[in-house]
Specification:
Length: about 240
């Protein structure tokens, strides 16, 4: 959070439920509270994720009396709401596909773009391969447009743990980044076990996984199993129930 407040582009790469959203949102609402012209653009890889996060951002903004200045702007946004969001919106949530279209008409967004203080790129680990290359070019376009309107903005990229968060951030943004990857969230003691299925042709690895899950359930342990397909997951769950 201190890095963002100091204007440094940041990649925050920590595990789930580690407080990434809070760490990014506090600098945003702080900027909006201090400057009535400040705005923030939040980028999510899918529409559903933007809708999921809308309530959290609206609640934060409501504490500043700005609850009606937050909105999702994408292809599903009603036409009658769009002009007001562009001219009066303070926090807008969108996705790369929509942003690609809107940048062509950036003059319509001038009131919003001039005030952009933070661009939050959530779920940064999604942006890999061809999709990631496209989003990287999109963010470079966005940077040029923001510079044209005189905005003073900072990027915040939130990602799940990844092998090289610095490389991810710098390739995505085309700018130097500060990496925060120390997960300070509280959690219980963890014990790691590795189970190697017996090489017994009479007992498949799937059968052993069923027995292991059934044993854990009988012992009252919450258990999460990952399998290659939904059909296999359903079969394992049914078999584990029958044997527990």
């Amino acid at each position: 959070m201190d890095h963002l407040l100091a204007g440094r582009d940041v990649v925050l790469a920590t595990g789930p439920s580690s407080g990434k959203t809070l760490a990014m949102s506090l600098p945003v609402v702080s900027a909006l509270a201090e400057d009535p012209a400040a705005t923030a653009l939040l980028l999510y890889p899918m529409k559903a994720l933007a809708q999921d996060q809308l309530g959290k951002w609206t609640a934060l903004a409501a504490a500043l009396g700005l609850g009606d200045k937050v909105g999702v702007y994408d292809g599903d946004t009603p036409a009658h709401r769009r002009p007001r969001l562009r001219s009066e919106g303070r926090i807008l949530l969108t996705n790369p596909y929509a942003l690609h279209q809107y940048l062509e008409w950036h003059h319509r967004w001038a009131p919003f773009l001039k005030g952009v203080r933070y661009v939050v790129v959530d779920e940064g680990h999604w942006y890999r391969g061809v999709f990631g290359s496209g989003v990287a070019l999109l963010l470079r376009r966005l940077s040029r447009v923001l510079a044209r309107y005189g905005a003073q903005w900072t990027y915040a990229v939130a990602s799940a743990t990844t092998g090289d968060p610095r490389l991810l951030g710098e390739r995505l943004l085309g700018r130097p980044v500060t990496v925060v990857d120390r997960d300070g969230s509280p959690h219980g003691t963890r014990t790691w076990w590795t189970w190697e299925p017996d090489r017994d042709p009479e007992v498949s690895s799937f059968r052993q996984a069923v027995d292991l899950c059934a044993f854990l359930v009988r012992e009252g342990q919450q258990t999460l199993a990952f399998l290659p397909s939904r059909r296999m997951a359903e079969a394992l769950a049914q078999a584990a129930r029958e044997h527990s």
